[in-house]
Amino acid sequence: MTTQQRPLLIPSPRTPGAPELPYTPAYADQLKSISENPKPSSGTGMDINSQVDNLSLPDNITLNSSSQRSNSSYQSRASGRNSMREVSFAGNSVRELNSGELGKKPMRYGSRAESEGLSMSQKEINDEDARFVYINDPVKTNERFEFARNSIRTAKYSIITFLPRNVFEQFHRVAYIYFLVIAILNQLPQLAVFGRGVSVLPLAFVLSVTAVKDAYEDFRRHRSDKIENNRLAWVLVNDNFQQKKWKDIQVGEIIKISANDSLPCDMVLLSTSDPTGVAYVQTINLDGESNLKTRYAKQETQMKNLEKEKISGLIKCEKPNRNIYGFQANMEIDGKRVSLGPSNIVLRGCELKNTRWAIGVAVYAGRETKAMLNSSGAPSKRSRLETQMNREIIILSFFLVALCTIVSVCAGVWLRRHKDELDNMPFYRKKDYSEVEADGNYDDYNYYGYGLEIFFTFLMSVIVFQVMIPISLYISMELVRVGQAYFMIRDTNMYDASSNSRFQCRALNINEDLGQIKYVFSDKTGTLTENKMEFHCASISGVDYNGGTAIDEDEQVGYSAQVDGQVLRPKMKVKVDPQLLSIAKSGKQADQESRVRDFFLALAACNTIVPLTTETADPAVRLVDYQGESPDEQALVYAAAAYGFMLIERTSGHIVIDVQGETHRFNVLGLHEFDSDRKRMSVILGCPDNSVKVFVKGADTSMFSVIDNSLNLDILGATEAHLHSYSSVGLRTLVIGMRELSASEFEQWQSSYETASTALIGRAALLRKVASNVESNLRILGASGIEDKLQQGVPEAIESLRMAGIKVWVLTGDKQETAISIGYSSKLLTTQMTQIVINCKSKESCRKSLDDALIVSQKLVPDSVAAHATGGSSEASPLALIIDGTSLVHILDSELEEQLFQLASRCNVVLCCRVAPLQKAGIVALIKNRTDDMTLAIGDGANDVSMIQMADVGIGISGQEGRQAVMASDFAMGQFRFLVPLLLVHGHWNYQRISYMILYNFYRNAVLVFVLFWYALFTSYTLTTAMTDWSSMLYSIIYTAVPTIVVGILDKDLSRRTLLKYPQLYGAGQREEGYNTTLFWVTMMDTVWQSAAIFFLPVLAYWRSTVDISGLGDLWTLAVVIVVNLHLAMDVLRWYWITHAAIWGSIIATFICVMIIDCLPSLFGYWAFFKIAGSALFWLCLLGITVAALLPRFIVKVFSQYYRPDDILIAREADKFGNLTALRNGEIELNPIFDPPRR
């Protein structure tokens, strides 16, 4: 056999965002389909050179190039589930997506294409689309185009741009533009109603508060940028490495990074401390994943000593882009041209781990690095209440226009009636008598004729009545949301002790949406389950080792290995099967023992796991911690170690495995990493006995297509049966195979691999082809079953959500049997449900299946019931829809979507299996686009990001798959079960509080406007005001603002215990009981009555008196403040000391402010309050106004609560009088939950 000069370790490109091994369903009927497949000839499997040379590549990568197998649905016969009914619809035809379809059609939800399907590796980089980087020559690199320096800036503003840019951004709120126009109009002499300065203050106050907040946040960003830019790195200058600030690094410079250092820019690796050129990096700051990833330097640069040997070359790479998983380039070095890929670049923000040093050349710097290009946050979302509030603001705007029109028209009529009296009328004075014209006439004094007078009166009315649109509402809502977020974050019931993570509120503007959720779309792995994989059982050579008599974890000692005088033990213990452990330790060379040995060798070697050793209290004992990109791989390696096959060292060129106390070194001759087309990974090992073996593991459907099914047909059948039994109990399955390569076969593979890995065009497709060719004619070793346990409290959480009228849909990439099993254990599925299963392979079969399913659902769920009941109705049989991703390929983005929606809306549960990330988003869009229901998506991985961002509310789980979901989410938490207190408690509270606050703000401002309106009708429509300018301005800032905010943060209509005990109470938010059009109009009618009582009682009381108008203005001001605050006090449900202080303190503060204003001689109405308040009539008027204004509201509240109580009131009474028999016996009857109408 030819001696290997260097390890061939250029990995196949990994699928972006999908590092986990895939798991596809195995069905009982697949054995037949396998036997029908023709056996691949050895010539086909190994004639690689000719195939690579003659490979014709299309313009776009062909999707689903790996073997597609027709799967029929399986009807479960598990004991205990015989009462379940299942209706299965399966298609037989297979549809292939060719490259032409991909090139012509945009990415759609139904597409199963992964992002790497659009890789640029299919084509050469044009000079126009390329960046030229001259190695170790930054001057020449930046000569033609000066690339970005390495200085970064995350701050939004500078000292010069802060004011104009911040003001511009704030005026994106239309209401601010409205108040700006009002302030400008008030500056005109003809329209000046308030003082010119006073009219600007409310808007200036709101803008200033927001500007101060933005300035502080930006100051923190500036400070962080400064620290980052002034960090130091070692840069090669004049053949010596010298320290240089990060901000001064240029593209083309060579940089040296030491262990545990962060990378200052995006670099192509040139050499590392490892002789084979491997480096390990941690990308937690980039994509949130804490597992180590491997990167490689090319051998052409690895062998150079850069400090002693001058290096020069040219890198031709793609222009900066956001794709952190892709990179295409080629490098000319020493007259050779080599290709570069994602495994040769390390990105800014990564940390170097387990490598003493690494040297690279900067190719992207500063704002052009992939980390900075991906620094944008999640898309902004607006709450539904705020959207509805805008509708009411438009109504109020029309209302304002109506009031202004009435005043201006009446003013025109009044002018016409009194046209002969205008010249000498006191306080009007049409004529200017100060100057006499030559003809003896006098000019008009500020009089512009009927038309302009009416127009000016209209504009002045807008200025006077401007508070009808509550500017303070926006800032009040922001403050209330901050307070609500504080209490959600501090809630110990949503604290996850296992991960030491609190609830995170990443989007403050949709807190209240948590109280209106109708659909929950959940991922399975890591969301419903722990994503902490544990090896559970194995099928080896057709024998099932299911661990039924496994040794208890507390009793087992665990495997250990002696290396260099130290004892190495795996960090995590694994329960072992005694029989399998005995066979693994026997050391015999019998057939079964040999297969067991090869099986565990495959588990230990066929992965990208990096073993790290950590110290213990005993200096002679060290723990081995296996770090990898996939929890599945970690579980398999720990299992191999438990059975005596312990991985203790990995480099790019070899691995060391302790096999039952004997250390064996295996040369890693080649590694084909997992990709989405093959759904497999393989490693080619040079074994100690000089043989060369290829070990392969992958999804069962992809593995059975490459196994030589002419060998051991009985083993294949037994393995498939075991796979089905594993998946039926919720285990994740994997198939292991191998074969031995002859010397000629290895040489052919080696030649083809080198040709493919150095190709400049179509490298990814060529490498996949080479991998597929060597992964053929395999001998099956067995299969593994990995358990992913349910998170604590998941069944109870799903049951509570269902009782709350929330539909829970599970969207998972796992196989159907596994998902169904988890569905039962989580109580998502029950034995009483009728299951409708759709597994189709063509559009026509999907159409027929949907039609048949709709007929079945209509029989089981009548239309009358489907229109109202959300679940579990006694009138209908509960339905569960189970559909796979292949069917969704044909349904989504087609006319079949409507049929799917009609079917799904009749079902209590929907379970989507084998779905791609875009399909998850498509399912969410299916509901969002066809209903007014609020949607929530929850997930923990990168494949859930699209779904999270599509839903109205997105929640990320701080799990094992990194933090991509958290970074894209609106809220983040540690466990799925926290969804119950988040929605049923905090969501309910937030919705009730914000709903009431919006209505109260409309009411509060409208009362004042109507008082001003009544006054205008009694003052000849001159729009003079009895209230001082300062009182009008302080009304929304001091007099009434604080109580609104305090109540909006602290008030509780029901206790936590009651809300959790009766989940049906959550339906109040779904039915929009807290805020709707009816409530708005009822509030407005109440406003008209209260304003009339406030205005007309003092008018009648002081009708024939000589009281000053300023005194009446003070009376009206105090009356309005007292009434609106008592109105609020009547509705407060939970009193705290701060609530008392806010409400009664606001009334006292109003008295103080009115007295201070009237004490200032420079202001209008000097000493007016003290004159009018000296009489008993003043205080009697305040008392009479309060009683008359609030009495109708009080009567209506008593009547409605006594004769027509709602669910909230019933539960509140039960909560208050906890000793009632009805409460003790749980006999509180709540209203049924109905679906809102469809669009």
Automatic annotation (TrEMBL):
Subcellular localization(s) per the UniProt record: Membrane
A matching Pfam family: PhoLip_ATPase_C
Transmembrane region(s): 198-216, 393-415, 454-475, 1002-1021, 1033-1050, 1079-1103, 1115-1136, 1143-1170, 1176-1196
Membrane topology summary: Multi-pass membrane protein
Broadest EC class assigned to this enzyme: translocase
Residues covered by the P-type ATPase C-terminal domain: 966-1205
Cofactor(s) needed: Mg(2+)
Name used for this protein in its record: Phospholipid-transporting ATPase
Biological source species: Coffea arabica
